[in-house]
Amino acid sequence: MLELYENCSLCPRLCGSDRLGKEDGIGKKGFCGETHKLRVAYVGPHFGEEPPISGKTGSGTVFFAGCSLRCSFCQNHQISNEGLGGEITLEGLSKKLEDIILNDNVHNINFVTPDHFFPHVFLSVSILRANGFDLPIAYNLSGYQAIESLRIAEDFCDIYLPDFKYSDTSLAARLSSCADYPGIALGAIAEMVRQKGFLDSCLTDSDLARKGVLVRHLILPGKTENSINALTSLFLEFGPELPLSIMSQYFPVLEHRDKDMNRIISEEEFSRVYSHALDLGFENLFVQFPDSSSASGQEACSSFLPDFSKERPFG
Ligand code: SF4
């Protein structure tokens, strides 16, 4: 499995980097900033996902160092762009996963932005399964995934939680250096839906999800047209039953040249996007409503920001 790090094409960047470094044992970093050495910033229960994922006892999250997308506004910039995270062995990760399953009773294991470490993720899922743990495995993804990697992932995943960030190619180029995002992400989500269907808890009204796809969209300040067109594309492609999560928690973590990106979203922006989702007729919506006063709105959004320099990044 680790040979997938050779001439790496795990994500659509297709860097071709020799991350394995058979000759020097070190390997070269690709766009994601990582070699074949597994690096993780946090393993633990997390309660900030949608209710069928977090449930009462939390989702067992694994946050990796590095990222194949590296958005300029990343809410997890400490780990995606700035290298925070520590090296860990496959055995070490497996032990931590078993600890949070047994001690914290998490509902699932949730690999967050894992695609640049897919080989290690697949191996750790195999170890969990071999040790008798059958809780659902979720992949929390950017949407910018290679179909070939998803085909391998099919046997090691139950729940896909992809973003659909952009319908606007120039915005995708500006903020995430990937003008091809809209087409690639729609194709990737179609493959995820082909494999797992829609999130089962939405179809059966059960409290916790065990399988399926839930798509997320984060509204960006000053970019409502992007959001509106993104929702329209999702509706046309997948229909009204697609489980969709609309998020309003954007917080400016870094200074942007684009002035809009230095503020949280406004009530009006949220309302436009939310009304559009209702007008289209999405039937399985998860909605994160913004706080109504601007002062507490700032506070509310910043409260979602993790600090990965702390032992408990989510407070
Ligand atoms: S996972 Fe990293 S090295 Fe591999 S293609 Fe993507 S960005 Fe490049």
Key attributes of the depicted protein:
315 residues, alpha/beta, TIM Barrel, seven-stranded mixed sheet, 13% strand, binds iron/sulfur cluster
Describe the structure.
It is a single chain. Helix content is 35%, strand content 13%. It has 315 residues and is an alpha/beta fold. It has a single domain (37-302), classed as Alpha-Beta Barrel (TIM Barrel). The strands form 2 sheets. A 7-stranded mixed sheet has the order 3-1-2-4-5-6-7, with helices on one face. Helix 10 links the parallel strand 9 (244-247) and strand 10 (285-287). Helix 3 packs across helix 4 (118-130) and helix 9 (224-238) packs parallel to helix 10 (267-280). The longest helix has 16 residues, at 181-196. 45% of the residues are buried. The mean pLDDT is 94. Iron/sulfur cluster binds at residues 8-11, 13-15, 17, 19, 30-32, 68, 116.
Helix-strand blueprint:
Elements: E1 39-46, H1 51-54, E2 59-64, H2 77-80, E3 86-87, H3 90-104, E4 109-112, H4 118-130, E5 137-141, H5 147-153, E6 159-162, H6 169-176, H7 181-196, H8 200-204, E7 212-213, E8 215-218, H9 224-238, E9 244-247, H10 267-280, E10 285-287, H11 294-302
Parallel strand pairs: 2-4, 4-5, 5-6, 6-7, 8-9, 9-10
Antiparallel strand pairs: 1-2, 1-3
Bound molecules: iron/sulfur cluster (SF4).
